[in-house]
Design brief:
CATH topology of chain A: Mth169, Chain: A
Number of strands of chain A: 3
Largest sheet of chain A: 3 strands, antiparallel
Structural class of chain A: alpha+beta
Largest interface: A-B, 34 and 34 residues
Order of helices and strands of chain A: EHEHE
Oligomer: homodimer
Distance between the termini of chain A: 8 Å
Chain lengths: 83, 83
């Protein structure tokens, strides 16, 4: 089966996120003062062939643990779609 | 009302994504050969106060058009959650 996987890698809650602060500041300067608590991370999409959805998810978690995310400073979240 | 908004900013389909290619190559070198068509973009999260969900989404689209995404090379996708 083929899967389309969306991974969101975000700075861990509580850790400083200078990029998010910079974006928040820039939004304020543009008049978007109602935006707050801005955090910036990475969005990764990939195609994966796997025997099952559970297998696809497990395999992607391995990729995150080994390469896509920094286990000390980042959290990740997966969304698995068929097709 | 308060909203939590997740924005995914991805390189437009058809455009070269060197970062995605680099990640795909690195995944292959780590033994994850079943992963393909890897694309890397940005994930942005923010809190927003707005009178309605529709308003929150419209306002976030303005932020994307003005700052968060490059309209020539990137597409974005919003997910709006209450709370």
């Amino acid at each position: 089966m083929n899967f389309r996987i969306h991974v969101r890698v975000m700075p861990r809650t509580g850790l400083l996120d200078p990029q998010g602060q910079a974006v928040e500041h820039a939004l304020g300067a543009l008049g978007f003062n109602e935006a707050g608590d801005v955090r910036v991370g990475r969005a990764i999409e990939l195609h994966l062939a796997a025997p099952s959805r559970a297998e696809a998810e497990a395999r992607t978690r391995q990729m995150c643990d080994k390469l896509l995310a920094n286990p000390v400073t980042e959290d990740y979240l997966l969304q698995v779609e068929e097709g």
